[in-house]
């Protein structure tokens, strides 16, 4: 891992009217690193993600600093970002993230054509190869379908493929597995892990789910009511949580799945059959 952060957030403050929804948040994401922003519902995770993406609502006032490769981007909305400061994104709702009227193929081709200058033919080949790498069955047929013709898990892997096609150095994934069943969650987390590893893409993973975070991330920033309460290597936070909220989070996660701290590399490849067998 190189020593310069890809993303550097300093004293981030976001207000909606008089309410502070993010209050003095600071953290770094290093090159190729996956970190999670972990907190309860309403703790300010999505506002932080949207500030990094340049997607804050007009009603929000923002202060502090967000640097991508050293360039200040806090006041630059997504639409005005240059190539070097673009951030790829994956959202919870894959159906609304994709254009319902356009084929999967035409949506996946767009970044290859627009940002990487490929011909339509080469872009289609690249799109098919990317879907194959996402372990999606029969990608040649899949590219001809529209989003509504796919399952939630297939669609979310298309969204990850779309984010990877943008070839940015940072990806933000906001609760990408929350709406999925456990088997599909594991597939999507594996796709995120393998592809960010392969492309050395840094990941800011937004979640309230410690299990999902433990499968994907090396480091965590824990927030409560818009403030950072604890941060560090995820393994250390799981084995020796310091803050009350982190302790509660770990205890609650252990109560549903005791083997929480398994390293990502050791995770089994779950199939529906395995889960049924172990039930
Ligand atoms: N449009 C809005 N106007 C005023 N306050 C808002 C608005 N949208 C969200 N909030 C408040 O901002 C705070 C942070 O919201 P945010 O969506 O960032 O939380 P979160 O941690 O992502 O929650 P979740 O896990 O439920 O998505 C919450 O207290 C929420 O009530």
From TrEMBL:
Keywords: ATP-binding, Nucleotide-binding
Protein name: ABC transporter ATP-binding protein
